[in-house]
Amino acid sequence: MIVFRSILFNIAFYLNLVGRMIIFSPYFFLVNRKAAWSVPKNWVRANHWLQAKIAGTTFEIEGLENIPEGSYIFAPKHQSFWDAYGLLPWLDDPVYILKRELTWIPLFGQYIRKMRMIPVNRGARGKVMAAVLERTKREMESGRQLIIYPEGTRRSPGAPPSYKYGIARLYRDLQVPVVPVVMHPGLFWPRRKFLRFPGHFKVQILPAIPAGMDPDAFMDHLTEVMETASDKLLVETVAANPHLPLREDARRRLAELGAAPSGAQAD
């Protein structure tokens, strides 16, 4: 049944994406950028509905009151494709720094440019990266929220932390608060897997870290608060969803925390 529901959800997910891009593109490109956000945000809401109805996966958000007004760096855990889009409806005017190759995708690239995302050549250094920082500063001065994944790439639930110092440099240079976010959607939407598991998970938005800390002290604090909250939430999520198959990283971390893994070993 999980295989069937996963296939059905994946089909519905991509039909929802392609269909909305075709149907709503005239509106998207004719209105101003802030109004155009309604198109991707409604796409996200539809995905949440599809995932709940077809795959049986639901979620809740705790800590929305911790989101400050104006500009800030939004720093979530990154485990699956879900957290690349799942929280967009709760952000006013987000911006991503993303690899420039995404702007080359037909139609999707035009969407990215319309929303003034910041493309970057990941192998670039020096003047190119300085230009990216200046562009980011301009976007933040207009009240936008920069989404940065502190560990850079997707990590499986329970994997050892691997925080990149780039977020500390941005924190220092942009002089805005950082909002840490922990969650474990990777237990329900594993990376590089088509299976979508039913259950319920929490997204926890932690108190914002004010601007102005020493970058090294900030990095230590960010790592500590995120990992402490993430460990606690991992134990809670697995206990509330004992049917979940657990991969080795999650099983190992639960054992280290003294919480007996209750899920079956995943492939």
UniProtKB/TrEMBL annotation:
List each copy of the Phospholipid/glycerol acyltransferase domain by range: 72-186
State the Gene Ontology terms under molecular function. Answer: acyltransferase activity
- For this UniProt record, give its keywords in alphabetical order, as a comma-separated list: Acyltransferase, Membrane, Transferase, Transmembrane, Transmembrane helix
Q: In which pathway does it act?
A: Lipid metabolism
Q: Where are the transmembrane segments?
A: 7-30
Highest rank taxon of the organism: Bacteria
Show the SUPFAM superfamilies listed in the entry.
Glycerol-3-phosphate (1)-acyltransferase
* Protein name, entry field: 1-acyl-sn-glycerol-3-phosphate acyltransferase
Q: What organism is the protein native to?
A: Hoeflea algicola
